[in-house]
Amino acid sequence: MERIKIEPRNNWQSAVEKLGFGFHSTDVPYWDESVYYKFSLTEIEQIEIATAELWEMCLSAVQYVIDKKLYAKFHIPEWIVPYLEKSWDDDYPSIYGRFDFAFKDGQLKLLEFNADTPTSLYEAGIVQWFWLQDFDKNKDQFNSIHEKLIAYWGELKHYLNHGKLHFACIKESLEDLTTTEYLRDCAIQAKIDTKLVFIDDIGWDNAREFFVDLEDEQIRNIFKLYPYEWLLNEDFGKNLTVDHTNTLWIEPIWKMILSNKAILPILWELYPYHPNLLKAYFDKGDLINYAKKPILSREGANIELQKEGRSLEKTSGEYGEEGFIYQDLFELPNFNGNYPLIGSWIIGQTPAGIGVREANRLITDNKSRFVPHLIG
Amino acid sequence: MKKSKYISLVLITAALASCDKKEKEWNEDEPKVYMRSDSTANYSRSHHGAGIGTALLWYYAFRPYGRYNNGVYNRAGYYSGGISERSNIGSNTGKYGIIRGGFGKGATVSS
User: Fold this and answer.
1) Taking CA atoms, what residue in A is nearest to B103?
2) A126–B11 C-beta distance less than 8 A
3) Domain count of the fold of chain A
4) Residue A207 lies in a domain
5) What is the ipTM of this complex?
6) What is the pTM of this model?
7) How far is CA A267 from CA A61, A96, A281, A293, A346, in A?
8) A75: domain range?
9) Residue A210 lies inside a defined structural domain of this protein
10) Which of chain B's residues have a Cβ under 8 Å away from the Cβ of A41?
11) Nearest to B14 among A20, A174, A215 (CB)
């Protein structure tokens, strides 16, 4: 894995905007093509194999959590448990997830799994691929995200309830809208009838007890880019269990188990000393250097890194109320003050590609930059 | 690592990119805009800058409202999450059976 500095394309802003990538820059740069990462084929294969294996391990871990009724450790409320278990027993399908890895000295370690609402999908699947066509189209990239999304939507089509597949996200975020619309784009190409509804426009039909869109059309299937821990705590949360029409929600609610950092100690308990896992516990255990993470948090908030008895880094935020886990400290590699994190995508059941986000600190937060990659 | 031979997008276009207008374009000298989504309702003042930052999002935020009856669509009015409830509903009883706004209190999910 090498970090290589280059000159950005002269017209890079318009080039990415033509792709519909409208949030390449905010108050800080997000898309950064003044640098790229070069991976060897062996390294890519290492990531691909680990992603496939971890996905299998995660599915086994979900079964374990359900069998042992470990919901309290995940802060999952009891009232939603029957609904969650039904979603698992009935094989409600998942479309995607993103494993975040640290890769250093040949070791690939899972830091967390974004299983419910991962973003940066469009950047990884489309924007960096078109960058490669301009930069060096003879090179390859670990990236079959687009084809796999279309193919897997095509498979899922047969599992959907009769009717449209709605796509929902919040109104105020162009980043969320782009991710959602990209997924919808792929579903359309798989010949699925789709419709966009913003999450706050979703209606509840009191008489017929199901969810509707803005035209009062019943929502039979819905992809939502909105986390379950928020859905459950909002006014319509309990309606998920009142709705007896078997609305298919994607991601499925059993992903609440995997999107929660409490899954990290469970994985370590089930697969101790697996080469892609770090020690993780619900308390400090025997850890001397560790990352303390809230079981529910986003964008690197409320994380503290402890090394040799002192605080190495700490981020603020609003999370932590539900509890923390402790994970053995494995620092991201340092490329002259740039710390890359590898997001490895699973589409359906298959590894599909990576995206690299780079930060100026050990904790990857919402100021990180998306950097393209190639196989050299 | 299979290289894509051909990628096409049918939905996402430069229209999305054009939405990336800075919020101040909406906020500076914000005029007083009064809106209602139903002709039987009262007007109330709308604040664009309160969250709806782009033309596309604004378009989707203010959508026709109606009902299918025996396969025929009857438009009843419009509904928007950007204006107050009293300006959405008015005396149009067709909207009473549906409650909206029960989801969506959170911010971006970017991870």
Assistant:
1) A200
2) no
3) 1
4) no
5) 0.87
6) 0.85
7) 6, 19, 10, 16, 18
8) 2-6+28-158+252-260+333-375
9) no
10) 1
11) A20
